[in-house]
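Record 1 of the preview.
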Amino acid sequence: MAETDDAPAPTTAFPQASTVTDFAANLAAVQATIDATALRAGRNPGDIRLLAVSKTVPEERLRLAVQAGCHELGENKVQEAKRKVEAMADLDISWAIIGHLQTNKVKDMVPFAAEFHALDRLKLAETLDRRLQASGRSLDVYVQVNTSGEDSKFGLPPAAALPFLRELRAYPSLTVQGLMTLAMFTTDTERVRGCFRLLRDLRDRARDEDPDLVGPGGLSMGMSGDYPVAIEEGATVVRVGQAIFGARPLPDSYYWPSAAH
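->
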């Protein structure tokens, strides 16, 4: 079983966006859902950021999305992101890496990434910090926690999250913004909700111990199939791909590596 980042409920189909008008309509629909869900939950819609997941989407379609107002893009794979960054350097885009990162790819990511959503081990933190300091810059990071307990997912076990946050103090170029998780891929909303609640509880425990451990205390959680539930449970960043760009031609198991292997 492979890790997923943007899986809709199994019965959901998202049509392909192929024009600026299509993208504008999809972005407006997602934003309307964000706003309405936040208001129902007693939250300020302005506290929730939409990060469009552009993995596997070719440059020509991304340019249409940017024309429609999409300026923050999240990619899983560094090499794919690097190609797009170079090809689209003429556009105003902020790039995030949201997928599992190998240490040998850090050198390629540091020059362009504005944020990283999948920090889950000290060796990676050390490598990032060394490269960032050499480049004279810092990087916003989210610590990934495996809240579903699935072997197929990357991320720290929940019990290891707070000790890991404490150790990150040794790496001054890493600016912790909060925590990130991938919920269980299921139509059982309560099981999905449980993953999000666990991340929020971990954030709150870290704040109780020392607010500096989690910086602003952001929660990067929720994707095309479950982002309203994530918002209800406190998400501050939702990572939405297929609801904006359309269904991908292959299943998520093709795009995501499996931690079990």
